[in-house]
Amino acid sequence: MTTPPDTPTATTVGAAPAAADVEGPAPPGPPPEVALPPLGAVGWVRWAWRQLTSMRTALLLLLLLAVAAVPGSVFPQRRINPGRVEEYLAEHTGYGPWLDRLGFFDVYSSIWFSAIYLLLFVSLVGCVLPRTRVHLRALRAAPPRTPRRLERLPAHTRVGVDTPADDVLEALASTLRRRRYRVARHDGASVSAERGYLSETGNLVFHLALLALLVAVAVGSMVGYSGQVLAVEKTSFANSVASYDSFEAGPRVDRGNLAPLAFTLDDLRVRFEAQAGGTQFGAPREFDADLTVRDEPDAPPRRVTISPNNPLDSGGVRVFLLGNGYAPVLTVRDGQGNEAFSGPVPFLPTGQANYKSAGVVKVPFAKPRQIGLTGLFLPTYAIDPAEGPISLFPDVVAPRLALTAFVSKPGDDAMTTSTAGSVYVLDTSRLEQLKASDGQPLRLLLAPGATATLPGGAGTVTFDGLRRYAAFDVRYDPTKPWVLGAAVLALAGLTASLFVRRRRVWFSASTDADGRTVVEAAALSRGDDPRLEDEVRSVLVAAGVRTDGTTQGATKGTTQSTEQSTEQGEE
């Protein structure tokens, strides 16, 4: 018997239809991409402002400013020692000019240092002022309400007492006020209190003082000035721009009307360690300068002794003693027998030990040919087979002056038209070096009182004697008291922010089924506070909240007797 084609077979009865024959919902695909609105110019400016005024950026800029100041202590600075800068450039002809272009010899007035300084100032302003507004609002606001679940807070304690709830809360509020807490009662069933806002106040004072410090330094750079001057013994200095070897002033300084000050260097006393064989042999032991000072043109002179740590203060102008050296007294006569030069010539230390110093003598008025001398001054002369002339000791024991002589070519006024502007540099490109009878360059070695004759009838050189000189740094900055005050405020604010702890405490009182008062206490501190639990217990004890010996439901080690707790309040 043949089965009809429309009759299902046994194998197909109750079978699930094929998947291809069933139409259902499509499987879920990936979520659609969220289209973010473009920030736009205003949005990018707001984002940049938030990044710049964040505390993280301010700290980074402060660290960067400290790093940027490091080259100022590594490389010589023009405002401190311009002669040392020229010497450094002469010794490092390769990378020295590049460092000069990048401002490494004028770090604190360079563009990159000023940019960091300005960004730090803007960052602090944008960071501190909003925090100050928030802090002032918090100071005027009442302490926060008591949470419902105090057991979730740290330093939680629950005790039972026989005193009525209102009396307990009043005693706790009085105790908290005596401990300089800000107290608030809520619904007659709880007390909340907080203290330690001095920590946040100190933090803000620190940053505001730092802002004031930056402003004071910036103003000081505009209204102050500084200059360096080298004075030989028995010579005088007057506070005018023409008297300085180098001078820098802010844009608001009247260069023609500097503070009245004049002084004469009467004597310079320098003493060195003379104990041979010790590690301190040759170290300076005394460095004092005796000055005759006039603070006003008509004021009587006064005698002052200054040292490196004891500057001269005259009407807001401070004179610092920076260094010292030797100034040989020379007399140069030209080929016609006339005295073309006479006086002390400062020789600058070369950086080597024992005051081996280099100097230049320019005699542009010598006739018929101009004379130039370069050489070394050696306080304690000796000859080293490898180095040549050296000094064995910084004090004057066996002084010698080693010189090399140059003269101008006939009819050429090389020194008058030379481009070398420093008195410590002799441009020899247009000069002719004198030679000895054997054809070698002329080398003069003079002791005090000796005279040497230059070949070719050029003239004579006499080493008459020796004086000392002192290098002074003269500074005027009327903002120094403001800088000091800001620094003291910053230190006080930082101390308060580090040692004062901010705490919040809550106490609630309710009556249980037995008619006893259940006092529940909890506290919270900003940051780690190991004395938080002791503070809660001491407040309870001070308020007279006592039990029969142990607390009930105490957490985190607070099961000890509250009667044995000691009062340990902290501001």
Q: What report would you give on this structure?
A:
The chain is α+β, with helices and mostly antiparallel strands. It is 26% helix and 29% strand. It has helices spanning 40-52, 55-68, 70-74, 82-91, 96-101, 111-140, 165-178, 197-223, 480-499, 532-542, and strands at 157-161, 182-186, 190-195, 225-232, 236-238, 246-249, 262-272, 284-294, 302-306, 312-314, 317-334, 339-344, 348-349, 357-363, 371-378, 381-384, 388-391, 400-408, 431-433, 444-446, 451-454, 459-476, 503-511, 517-525. Strands 4, 6, 10, 11, 12, 21 and 22 form a seven-stranded antiparallel β-sheet that branches. Strands 13, 14, 15, 18, 19 and 20 form a six-stranded antiparallel β-sheet that branches. A hairpin with a 4-residue loop joins strand 11 (317-334) and strand 12 (339-344). Helix 2 (55-68) packs antiparallel against helix 6 (111-140). The longest helix is centred in the first third of the chain and has 30 residues, at 111-140. The protein is elongated, with a radius of gyration of 42 Å.
- Name the beta content range: 25-35%
The quaternary structure here is single chain
Helical element count? 10
Which structural class is indicated by helix and strand composition? alpha+beta
Poorly predicted segments = 1-21, 547-571
Which whole number gives the mean pLDDT? 84
What can be said about the biggest beta sheet? 7 strands, antiparallel
* Helix content range: 25-40%
Tags for this model:
disordered N terminus, six-stranded antiparallel β-sheet, alpha+beta, 29% strand, elongated, 571 residues, disordered C terminus, 24 strands, 10 helices, seven-stranded antiparallel β-sheet
